[in-house]
């Protein structure tokens, strides 16, 4: 009798930046979902390329000390998390290692010191989320949640461990709400935005709603204590529907006496607890002084700009969106800081030395770019006469490392310290912060 064929076996060496186990088999790199460092696993490949494969762990032959039982019953299927099988403390340590490896390998730089990682609540932390919606005619039901791993299908998830309990408990009632709407086949998304005083659900509607729909939505809002917005087209078309007398959507930075209003489709951090700690650390590293002129690049709504201005420094916030620039100005006025702030629109991805020079001299600079990083900004900073200190907040360790190479090895800065910010527990997403000094 022939024995059943076993899947190939690999020993996991490390984790990559997305939380996949990394192994090498016959000279090829294998990225294995669900595997942890030091484990011996059987795996099945679902994507094969000449130099690498993507695979799923099918059997753990030797467990890592990092392994824990995932809390979420949907974890094996849901694509919302990728690291629940790893101890929360180990996740932070792995992300710190990912940052160090990227700085060394891509950036050819080493920080003089590594900062203590920033971390906080690991469950119920996600106060911003985009939930997909699908009417499944064959089952006569509606699904509301995250996509399955590597799939366009939506997980049948009656609860979620990373969403706040109030929202998790609302997932099944949301299904019933959508099921009762006339446009249930034309509503692909619900966006969540929680603030200090109101929780907002934005319904992406492809067709207008009728009076019966309006009544259902109002009743749901009253019962569950949320405000609904409707979004007929792009994010800029979202508008409040009910109740219209709800408090403004906002978050606060109490250490700096800042209140930040925002619209539910505008970018803010998903984890407000960690954002407060991140802003405080960035300000301690930047150490702004009264009367200094400081740049906040990729400033968004002013998450860092306004706390910097609270120090008495004069801050120039630069962003690529005219709408965001206007919103940042409004927030500065609301917080009584418009006399210390100047918001300008510029495409920072196309910054040049001439464009940087036209902005004038800055004593210090904070950079907080999206995943693409700030390569052109870093190349445009003058090697002589530029800011004496730069604090770089990053959501991609690889682009941070690439840009650090320019700042250190081309522009002559010293990388004083760097560290991770665990903004997204149970995912492979690595946020980080770095301090550069011209000595």
Number of helical stretches of at least 4 residues:
10
- The CATH superfamily of the largest domain is Vaccinia Virus protein VP39
Question: How many separate domains?
Answer: 3
Unreliable stretches, pLDDT < 50, 5 or more residues?
none
With strands numbered from the N-terminus, the spatial order across the biggest sheet is: 7-21-22-20-19-16-17-18
What general outline do the C-alpha atoms trace?
Answer: flat
Cα separation of the termini: 73 Å
CATH first level of the largest domain: Alpha Beta
**Computed structural class:** alpha/beta
Question: Kindly state the mean pLDDT as a whole number?
Answer: 95
Rg over alpha carbons: 24 Å
- Approximately what portion of the residues adopt beta-strand conformation? 25-35%
Percentage of residues in helical conformation: 10-25%
């Amino acid at each position: 009798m022939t024995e059943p064929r076993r899947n190939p076996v690999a020993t996991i060496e490390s984790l990559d930046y997305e939380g996949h186990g990394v192994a090498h088999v016959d000279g090829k790199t294998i990225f294995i979902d669900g595997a942890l460092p030091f484990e011996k696993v059987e795996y099945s490949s679902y994507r094969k390329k000449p130099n690498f494969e993507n695979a799923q762990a099918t059997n753990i032959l030797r467990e890592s000390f990092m392994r824990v039982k995932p809390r979420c019953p949907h974890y094996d299927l849901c694509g919302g998390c990728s690291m629940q099988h790893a101890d929360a403390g180990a996740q932070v340590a792995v992300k710190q290692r990912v940052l160090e490896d990227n700085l060394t390998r891509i950036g050819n730089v080493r920080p003089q010191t590594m900062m203590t990682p920033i971390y906080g609540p690991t469950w119920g932390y996600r106060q911003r989320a985009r939930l997909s919606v699908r009417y499944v005619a064959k089952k006569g039901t509606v699904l509301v949640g995250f996509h399955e791993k590597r799939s366009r299908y939506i997980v049948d998830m009656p609860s979620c461990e990373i969403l706040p309990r109030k929202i998790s408990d609302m997932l099944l009632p949301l299904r019933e709400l959508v099921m009762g709407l006339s446009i249930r086949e034309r509503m692909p998304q619900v966006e969540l935005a929680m603030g200090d005083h109101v929780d907002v659900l934005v319904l992406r509607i492809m067709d207008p709603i009728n009076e019966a729909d309006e009544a259902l939505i109002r009743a749901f809002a009253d019962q569950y204590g949320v405000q609904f917005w409707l979004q007929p087209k792009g994010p800029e078309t979202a508008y409040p529907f009910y109740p219209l007398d709800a408090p403004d959507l906002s978050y606060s930075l109490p250490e700096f006496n800042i209140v930040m209003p925002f619209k539910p489709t505008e970018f803010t951090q998903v984890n407000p607890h960690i954002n407060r700690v991140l802003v405080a650390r960035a300000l301690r590293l930047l150490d702004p002084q009264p009367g200094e002129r400081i740049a906040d690049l990729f400033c968004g709504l002013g998450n860092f700009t306004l706390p910097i201005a609270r120090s008495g420094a004069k801050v120039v916030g630069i962003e690529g969106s005219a709408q965001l620039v206007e919103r940042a100005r409004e927030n500065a006025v609301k917080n009584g800081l418009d006399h210390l702030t100047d918001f300008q629109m510029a495409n920072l991805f196309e910054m040049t030395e001439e464009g940087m020079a036209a902005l004038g001299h800055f004593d210090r600079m904070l950079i907080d770019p999206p995943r693409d990083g700030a390569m052109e900004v870093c190349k445009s900073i003058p090697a002589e006469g530029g800011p004496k200190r730069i604090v770089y907040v990053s959501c991609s360790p690889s682009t941070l490392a690439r840009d650090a190479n320019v700042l250190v090895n081309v522009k002559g800065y010293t990388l004083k310290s760097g560290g991770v910010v665990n903004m997204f527990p149970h995912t492979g997403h690595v946020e980080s912060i770095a301090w550069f000094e011209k000595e």
